[in-house]
Amino acid sequence: MPSRAKAAARDKLDRAGSPAGLTLGTFLTLRFIAFIGGLIAGGALFILWPGAALHRWLGSGLLALLGILGPDYYLDGKIRSRQYIIRKSLPDVIDLLVVSAEAGTGLDGALAVVIKRKEGPLINEFSRVLAEMRLGKSRQQAWEDMANRVDLDELRMLVAALRQAEQLGVSIAKTLRTQADSLRTQRSLRVRQI
Question: How far apart are CA 96 and CA 99, in angstroms?
Fold first, then answer.
């Protein structure tokens, strides 16, 4: 498999949060099995179905298409679900970060407090950020990698605001509070539009 296709599959798995503990190798294997299974099921339907030729072709094509696209469709659904959960929990998690930062802990300490008290995909991402920083990755790079993995504009805005606050020496707590207020405003606007 080309390295570009592997990288795209790895990105999708990261965005989906590796559902059911899927690894890249397992996902690619499942994708291949689904592809072969779809082709075999389509061929068997074409041979065994006594209907008109047009119906046999359409049914066979549909089964083959389901086998080809099914695993990616499943992963896309998991990505949308995970992004929804992260988007919904982000303002509350940022509020907890604000409280921890105002209590005198730094950003890393505030993250550790949030990780201990909360659960969910956003907390898993924060935990990964802390682990990457402990392994030597720069704070900015770890945050940007998280924003790219999750692929949410709200998280990208948070990362950009934190980067700017760090560069300008602005209070992290004040920056986080502004982000939480902005996210709540965006959420209420989205609810009104629905």
Answer: 5
Map tokens 């559902």 to a residue. 19
Contacts of 94 (CB under 8 A, 6+ apart): 158, 176, 177, 179, 180, 183
Torsion on CA atoms 182, 186, 188, 194, rounded to nearest 10: 180
The whole-number pLDDT of residue 194 equals 64
CB 115 within 8 A of CB 130: yes
Q: Quick one: which of 75, 54, 65 has its CA closest to 9?
A: 75
- Whole-angstrom Cα distance, residue 143 to residue 132? 10
- The pTM of the full predicted model, rounded to 2 decimals, is 0.82
**Beta carbons of 42 and 60 less than 8 angstroms apart:** yes
